[in-house]
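Name: Flagellar basal body rod protein FlgB
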Amino acid sequence: MSISFDNAFGIHEQAVTLRQQRAELLAGNLANADTPGYKAKDLDFKAALSAAQSKQSGMSLAQTSEGHLAASLGLHPAAGFRNPDQPDTGDGNSVDVQVERNLFLQNALEYQTSLQFLGGRIKGLMTAIKGE
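Structure predicted for Flagellar basal body rod protein FlgB:
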């Protein structure tokens, strides 16, 4: 009998990847906080995880024509521009550094939680394999 890692890890493998992609977007926002015209980006984690879950279960969209855009254009399909909470400062930049820092910290904590969960699953598998 073989071990199915898809069954063992479930959606948590995709969650770690999505958290990493969101961290990159948020870090890019912080790096461009003083760039005129830069628009803050974010990842809709719930939509991205739902898309990953449906793709995992085999219900993904198919590209039926050469004219259709490919699924990957560098950003996750659930990534987009965030509506600013503050009025325009005159330079067109929509990054609020305090909001970005808070979102980055929250995402980092959730990333660590996902890693700890996966570590526990791996430890459980190792215990089962060793027969302890």
